[in-house]
Design brief:
The chain is of the alpha+beta class. It has four helices and eleven strands. It has one domain: Jelly Rolls (Sandwich). The protein is globular and about 45 Å long.
């Protein structure tokens, strides 16, 4: 369970996630993390959240985001953007300095354990080109309330695959929630 001030740091890059406002504090309405990304750091693949909006506020540096079918947009210090649920997107640091931003998931659902699990996969070197292992994605899709899926595969196909492949993923050691 995430706690306010909890810090998840990548030993390889120094990038981090810090829990700023937890679901427990907001009654599940939202969860906010502070994220620091290096210029060539973590960049998630195009993905979508089926049940959550994702908002960003830039504290320092510049955030670039792409909404499905649109050109990249870059915002700077003090600017905010909300990426709506069910719309494919990605977000990353394409600037010349470290990016620090506040990222909020609304509603919170299981955003915090998702961040913890993503971080664990990332520091273990399992996230390649912004994408966790496919079987990990299938376990998350099958077991988490806050469904996150790849933007380039139809959601129905992913839900079917999750039903079939999540048990295999669990046998291979993947979990929706890690201690």
């Amino acid at each position: 369970m995430a706690t306010k001030g909890q810090l998840l740091i990548s030993p390889a890059t120094g990038e981090y996630f810090e829990f700023v406002e937890t679901a427990a504090e907001t009654g599940g309405k939202h969860s906010t993390i502070k994220v620091m990304l290096k210029k060539t750091g973590f960049k998630p693949v195009m993905h979508k959240h089926l049940e959550q909006d994702e908002s960003f506020e830039v504290v320092s540096g510049k955030l670039t985001y792409v909404l499905e079918g649109q050109a990249p947009v870059t915002i700077g210090v003090g600017e905010r953007v909300t990426l709506p649920k069910a719309v494919g997107h990605t977000h990353y640091n394409d600037g010349d300095e470290d990016l620090v931003m506040l990222q909020t998931a609304t509603p919170a659902l299981d955003f915090e354990p998702f961040v913890e699990a993503m971080h664990l996969n990332y520091i273990r070197g399992l996230v390649k080109n912004g994408q966790p292992p496919f079987l990990q994605l299938m376990v998350w899709m099958n077991e988490m309330k806050g469904k996150t899926c790849l933007a380039d595969i139809p959601v129905g196909v992913q839900k079917f695959l999750a039903t079939v492949l999540a048990p295999i993923g669990r046998l291979r050691g993947y979990r929706a929630f890690y201690d």
